[in-house]
Design brief:
Elements (H helix, E strand, L loop, with lengths): L15 H20 L2 H11 L6 H7 L4 H7 L8 H24 L5 H4 L20 H16 L3 H20 L5 H21 L7 H21 L8 H14 L1 H17 L1
Helix pairs in contact: 1-9, 3-8, 4-10, 5-7, 5-9, 5-10, 7-8, 7-9, 8-9, 10-11
Length: 267
């Protein structure tokens, strides 16, 4: 009998949890492309989503930063190494897609087209390499992996809402077109799909767990101590979130690094 599920996943190919994200992203991109409504839709959403204080959207969009998404995985250390390892593989795939498209499709961002009088530009201003949105791809990569590996419907729903709000924030802050965030959504899903389909690892390899964990810890250190190019308005959460996630990961770090060392010493 033919297997109707992704490798190592309980999600069937026929389930909306598998196909809803890519179908929505690609269908929406097709409609926007055919109707030529990318710019008008951006202006409509950018205006409709605007409210004060402006810092709220700036702080929300922070959680689509790749380093911040890595930090959010810290509490999963030792608890769900499969999510950690497979998300890391998916992140590498997504990064290759993103940089490839940004390199060969030098699409200008909204601030290069419209003035501040025509749109709401919140936070740092970016003008180049618009498609696809990395801040959309990163959360959807993690969200899709959790959907594939976690059966709990509530958790799946929460991560989809999280990723969707982050994606929308890129239009609200005026740095991406609707096509950009839809492209990021699709590539985030596709990267996780490829990770699940062609890299059937379970996360049991201790060396892989440790190396990836060290990278996650470095991401936290980078955000707290080294990162100085982010939005000033979001700096407080940029420091607080890694600290909280690191504290929540201490038990996992102990089991991954300290416990094996103590066991060797006692032998």
């Amino acid at each position: 009998m033919k297997n109707n599920h992704l490798p190592l996943s309980t999600v069937s190919y026929s389930s909306p949890w598998f196909w809803a994200i890519p179908v929505f992203a690609l269908t929406s991109m097709l409609i926007i492309g055919v109707t030529g409504s990318n710019r008008p839709l951006f202006l409509f959403l950018n205006e409709a989503l605007y409210f004060k204080p402006e810092d709220i959207w700036i702080n929300i969009t922070l959680y689509g930063d790749a380093a911040m998404v890595m930090v959010l995985m810290l509490p999963l250390i030792a608890k769900r190494p499969d999510i950690i390892v497979k998300s890391f593989i998916a992140a590498i795939i997504a990064t290759l897609f993103l940089h490839g498209f940004k390199e060969f499709l030098p699409i200008l961002r909204p601030p290069s087209i419209y003035t501040h009088e025509q749109m709401h530009q919140l936070g740092n201003q970016f003008t180049q390499s618009s498609f696809p949105s990395g801040h959309s791809a990163a959360p959807f990569t993690l969200a899709t992996m959790i959907i594939f590996l976690v059966e709990n419907i509530k958790i799946r729903s929460v991560v989809v809402v999280y990723a969707s709000i982050i994606a929308i924030s890129r239009v609200a802050t005026g740095v991406h077109w609707p096509m950009d965030i839809l492209g990021g959504m699709f590539f985030g899903w596709f990267a996780s799909y490829l990770s699940m389909r062609f890299f059937p690892v379970t996360g049991e390899n201790l060396l892989a767990q440790r190396l990836i964990t060290l990278l996650l810890v470095f991401a936290a250190v980078h955000l707290v101590f080294l990162h100085d190019r982010g939005d000033v308005e979001a700096r407080f959460l940029e420091i607080l979130t890694p600290i909280i996630c690191f504290i929540l990961s201490l038990k996992g770090l102990k089991s991954l690094f300290l416990d094996p060392l103590i066991a060797r010493v006692k032998q």
